[in-house]
Amino acid sequence: MSMLKDPSRKYQAFPAINLPDRTWPSKTITEVPIWCSSDLRDGNQSLIEPMDAQKKMRFFKTLVQVGLKEIEVAFPSASDTDFNFVRELIEGGHIPDDVTIQVLTQAREDLITRTFESLKGAKKAIVHVYNATAPSFRRIVFNQDKAGVIGIATKAASLIKQLAAQQPGTDWTFQYSPEIFSSTELDFAVEVCDAVIDVWQPTPEKKIILNLPATVECATPNIYADQIEWFGRHVSRRDSVIISLHTHNDRGTGVAATELGLMAGADRVEGCLFGNGERTGNVDLVTVALNMYTQGLHPQLDFSDIDAVRKVVEECNQLPVHPRHPYVGDLVHTAFSGSHQDAIRKGFAQQEEGARWEVPYLPIDPADIGRSYEAVIRVNSQSGKGGITFLLEQEYGISLPRRMQIEFSQVVQKETDRLGLEMTAEQIYKLLDSEYLQATSPFTLKGHRLQEENGTSAVDIEVQVKGETQHLRGMGKGPLEALVASLPVGVEIMDYSEHAIGAGTNAKAAAYIELRVNGGRALHGIGIDENLTTASFRALFSALNRALSQTEAEAA
Ligand SMILES: CC(=O)SCCNC(=O)CCNC(=O)[C@H](O)C(C)(C)COP(=O)(O)OP(=O)(O)OC[C@H]1O[C@@H](n2cnc3c(N)ncnc32)[C@H](O)[C@@H]1OP(=O)(O)O
Ligand SMILES: CC(C)C(=O)C(=O)O
Ligand SMILES: [Mg+2]
Predict the structure, then answer these.
(1) Mean pLDDT across the stretch 274-286?
(2) Fold type of domain 443-555
(3) What angle do CA 211, 270, 55 make, to 5 degrees?
(4) At what angle do helices 146-165 and 186-200 cross, to 10 degrees?
(5) What residues contact 375, with CB distance under 8 A and at least 6 apart?
(6) Where does the chain hold its CATH 3.30.160.270 domain(s)?
(7) How far is CA 152 from CA 1, 156, 157, 175, in A?
(8) Is 453 exposed, middle or buried (0-12, 13-18, 19+ CB in 10 A)?
(9) Which residues have a Cβ under 8 Å from the Cβ of 471 and sit 6 or more positions away?
(10) If you measure from the C-alpha of residue 269 to the centroid of ligand 3, how many angstroms do you get, rounded to a whole number?
(11) pLDDT surpassing 80 at residue 23
(12) Which of this chain's residues are annotated to bind Mg(2+) (predicted)?
């Protein structure tokens, strides 16, 4: 490869932060942050078709239901749709008392003025202003030096303070974002923020929010954590400032950066549900929140019906959620592969109600987010007996004995190989039915009469053999021995088991028999009936017929 064409030469590693006594690496997340959804702003501005008023309202109500207390609802000076949406929220009384709406504006006088107009009559509001501070933006976008950029920020901060004072009926919170904080020289980021602090004069009782965006993610997440810890140590009036994280996912590590940022001392997280947002998206709030469960923390957001939330988000954003998306993807609580299914089935069987969650391969209990166990195990050609057994147990109450699991899984394997497709529980049951329950040839059991006296059983059997009715009679120490004695072929029973399916008046019996015919290969049969003796007789004929058919097939 020619070095001249080597793309890596265009880029430079992000320099490490000088913070040898960093503390975040040995911390864990022990507190739930303040959550802020930016779905209706950062999410919305990145959509092919931004949401209309109806969609925005539907999304807003879902966010409220989920439990978000801070919601960035619009960029009011951007469009009439956004402006009018803020008006509708306020005038229509749609904002619950414990929810604060947030709006974004550039640090420009006309836009700030329009933003305050949109907020007239709000009980509470966060006014969020941003301007770029990163070196390339200073040069490319603003053509300003550092002092010029500080001037943009402080001028806007002053105007915001002044306009807020003119609308005293609203409980205001001010928020400032130095854009691409993560690419801004740290001391300059602090310098700009300190200048804004000087204007806003926050106190521990009336804090401001400093939102520190990784607008474009261009370093490993440990760098972002260092930047957050460094900033927290150096910013003035730390006790009067809420440090907010706002990460994007350009390198695919938005969640990691946010989590490490929390360990580094941040108080608040902005993001979007399922990671919508500019380019690769904002950090996925759902993932960060649900990851808290595995830290033993309740995220204080309600995703107990995650599929209902997903439906709203997909319909409003007109973007599908990927099937492998953490927590919510269609496939993420599903195991196809044999060894995973085996471990999951054993895990479910041993998991006790209320005990610490230990089911292998499932980081959280799917039921906690409204997912059903049925979806957990699905069967294709990579599956083994564990998954097949699990589905038959869950869906049909059929518990195959161990050796029969092995035998039947080979039948299923042949079918999945032949189809090249997944098999549903229903298809598996149909296969079990045709292979075992419908194994009625050459012997079709038509009826039986059982007499038991002094420990001896005598059975009269009516069977149909190749269309002809035959009567068989046998005696033995029990019904099965009597039945075996009645047969015209040599049958040796290797194993027998039974269990109930269901309970009460609808209960049925399932019987399983493993037998050998004339010393041949051991094979299984199943019988299901309301009557246990009938079930066991059906099981015997099921196994016998399978054995005879196979012998015939092998001879042919
Ligand atoms: C990282 C982020 O997500 S930031 C949020 C981005 N979101 C959006 O932009 C969505 C909504 N935006 C819009 O609809 C439009 O940009 C508007 C209506 C707000 C403004 O539109 P316009 O007036 O046409 O300006 P435009 O967006 O092109 O911005 C360019 C001008 O604003 C300046 N500018 C850009 N950002 C800022 C800022 N944060 N603060 C101050 N000035 C800014 C630029 O330097 C440029 O100035 P110039 O014309 O003197 O060179
Ligand atoms: C407006 C700011 C906070 C933003 O969205 C970003 O920098 O990503
Ligand atoms: Mg953003």
Answers:
(1) 98
(2) Double Stranded RNA Binding Domain (3.30.160)
(3) 130
(4) 30
(5) 333, 334, 366
(6) 443-555
(7) 47, 6, 9, 15
(8) exposed
(9) 460, 461, 462
(10) 12
(11) yes
(12) 42, 246, 248, 282
* Ligand 2 pocket test, candidate residues 40, 182, 246, 276, most atoms within 8 A of CB: 246
Q: How far is the CA of 275 from the centre of ligand 2 (A)?
A: 14
Spell out the alpha helix ranges (H) of 433-474: none
Q: For 199-246, how does the pLDDT look when each residue is reduced to its tens digit (9 = 90+)?
A: 999 999 999 999 999 999 999 999 999 999 999 999 999 999 999 999
Is 388 close to ligand 1, i.e. is its CB under 6 Å away?
A: no
CA distance 216 to 183: 8
Closest CA to 325 of 269, 374, 272, 373: 272
**Torsion sign over Cα 109, 115, 119, 120:** positive
Q: How many other C-beta atoms can be found within 10 angstroms of the C-beta atom of residue 240? A: 17
CA terminus-to-terminus distance, the chain: 63
Asked whether 481 and 511 are in contact (CB, 8 A), the reply is: no
- Read off the tokens for 237: 């009036």
- 77 in ligand 1 pocket by Cβ < 6 Å? yes
Q: How far apart are CA 265 and CA 210, in angstroms?
A: 13
Ligand 3 mean position to 333 CA, how many Å? 30
Q: What amino acid occupies position 141?
A: V
Q: How far apart are CA 108 and CA 156, in angstroms?
A: 7
Alpha-carbon span 405 to 265, nearest angstrom:
53
DSSP code of residue 441: S
Report d(CA 124, CA 233) in Å as an integer. 30
For residues 275 and 326, give the distance between their C-alpha atoms in angstroms, rounded to a whole number.
10
pLDDT (0 to 100) of residue 374 = 65
Question: What pLDDT score does 529 carry?
Answer: 97
Tell me the CATH architecture of domain 31-317: Alpha-Beta Barrel (3.20)
Tell me the residue length of the chain: 556
Tens of pLDDT, residue by residue over 118-141, are 999 999 999 999 999 999 999 999
- Residue 271 CB-half CA count within 13 A: 27
Reference 538, options 511, 514, 498; nearest CA is 511
**Confidence band of 3 (pLDDT split at 50, 70, 90):** low
The finding on whether 328 has its CB within 6 A of some atom of ligand 1 is no
User: ipTM of this predicted complex?
Assistant: 0.97
DSSP conformation letters of 109-125: HHHHHHHHHHTTT-SEE
**DSSP state letter for 280:** T
Ligand that lies nearest to the alpha carbon of residue 77, given by its number in the listed order = 1
Residues facing residue 523 across a β-bridge: 515
User: What are the start and end residues of each CATH 3.20.20.70 domain in the chain?
Assistant: 31-317
Strand (E) positions, 407-546? 443-453, 456-465, 468-476, 491-501, 508-517, 523-529
Q: Distance between CA 163 and CA 496 in Å, rounded?
A: 84
User: Rg of the chain over CA atoms, in angstroms?
Assistant: 34
